Amino acid sequence: MQSIRDLKPNFGPPPQSMAAGPDTYMQGNIRLTLEDPDLWKSFHDLGTEMIITKPGRRMFPHCKINLAGLIPCAKYILLVDMVPVDGFRYKWNKEKWEVAGKAEPQPPCRTYLHPDSPAPGSHWMKQSVSFLKLKLTNNTLDQHGHIILHSMHRYHPRFHIVQADDLFSVRWSVFQTFTFPETSFTAVTAYQNTSITKLKIDHNPFAKGFRDESTNKKRRSSKSPACQEKRAKMSDMSNRDSKEDSPPDFCRSAYEAYDGEEGDMPKRKEVEGIKQERYSPWAADREHGVRTESPPGADHRDVYNTEQLVPAPASYQPQRVHDFGKPPSPSPSVGSSHSGSGRSSFESRAPDVATVPDHDASKLRTHEVGPPPCGPQPLPAPQDYPGVLNMSVAHQAGKPGMIGHHLYSPYGPEQPLGQWSTPGPTQYPPRSPPDRRLHNAHCAPWISPWQRG
DNA sequence: TCTGCTTTCACATTTGAAATGA
DNA sequence: ATCATTTCAAATGTGAAAGCAG
């Protein structure tokens, strides 16, 4: 956390609208914990898969975090984006993931803006913050502001916290970025690992209809013999899964590595080492000759050097929590938080966190963030969706002393972070007429730092 | 053309919010 | 104004079929 003291706003003095305060000191005290860590771990152990569809699909488990250490009266913006774990495309082969080649070109990267943003620190800290409405899509022409991913590629969410009165101020602000290793996942259009399917059905209330054995039998009996055969095969597979408890190698090794360092809070370097291992679950495959031009992992960590590996839950990583200067967060037990005990267990703690914000005058200023420079990638269709914004982040590579994700003028030369998106019109009523500048929002698909030649 | 992998679509079921009525 | 009930859109995994590449 020491490095965080180096945080400083960039690009000259912040606007007066920005809350004054000991930014650098307080930002260093920000703590972020993942809710339902046990549930996430359950998925991660098997190799989390997230369905992506053209209309957009919610994540399950969805991202839900607790924040602490914010200045109660200062305003913050919360963002989530998805970054590739590596430069590979994968395939599911005989119950495990294998590298299937080089990753496809990065789709236009979008950043999901929490609908409550900006809100005071007290607001973010009073209850858990849910990103329930975040949707993933494989439609590169998506105009709803969903996060665009490639199927059969691996990603992990990043949480960004920016102290800023409004999105206009963000360009002078400093990002703090948090990642949770256990939230990494493979984007798929159909589930590959039947164990993951079972886990989703067991814990997602919307899939309750698939839990009841009798109902399932009824459904199955109506299918063709070939279908039944397939079902039997799948059942067999899932039995084997549960029997052998043999998740793909990457998961097991990942968590072995994670568990294996009990006792010491790892220093920064060690953390990065762990990350690398966790994000290189198929190291064996790579060693066997799979190579790509895109340097995976390490590079983007160099670039986003404020990215913090958030400690694992106390249940299996107590020493890290300790390092954050507070007792283990009272993370709900798996049973109480996701055991399917009803609706309350899902959203009761933050039922309204992800609801539509009041798009008052100040929030409409978000559009003033303006378009960043155009990137070299093929352009998606025009992003007329008013909730999608482009923003940019200074490229920190080669500036070892610089800590933080500094936003820069949208017309500057650096790389954009991505497009901001808030829940789209399918979820919420349309906003008031969008700022004209937004029509340029399609202009700058985000280029991964490790993608640039 | 064949095969296998991936994606898309319609479907049944459940959830949850809005609308309606007492 | 409050509460209970109804209605309906959204969310979910399933399985068949289509699309696509080798």
From TrEMBL:
Residues that span the membrane, as ranges: none
Source superkingdom: Eukaryota
SUPFAM superfamilies tied to this protein: p53-like transcription factors
Biased composition (Pro residues): 370-383
Classification via InterPro entries: p53-like_TF_DNA-bd_sf (IPR008967), T-box_DNA-bd (IPR046360), T-box_sf (IPR036960), TF_T-box (IPR001699), TF_T-box_CS (IPR018186)
Pfam family membership, one: T-box
Keywords of this entry: DNA-binding, Nucleus, Transcription, Transcription regulation
Keyword Transcription regulation: yes
PROSITE patterns linked: TBOX_1 (PS01283), TBOX_2 (PS01264), TBOX_3 (PS50252)
Residue span, T-box domain: 34-212
GO biological process, any: cell fate specification
Region (Disordered): 1-23, 206-387, 405-453
Regions of compositional bias (Low complexity) in chain numbering: 332-348
GO CC term (a single one): nucleus
GO function terms (MF aspect): DNA-binding transcription factor activity, RNA polymerase II-specific; RNA polymerase II cis-regulatory region sequence-specific DNA binding
Amino acid composition bias (Basic and acidic residues), ranges on this chain: 206-216, 228-246, 264-291, 357-368
Cell compartments where the protein resides: Nucleus
Protein name as it appears in the record: T-box domain-containing protein
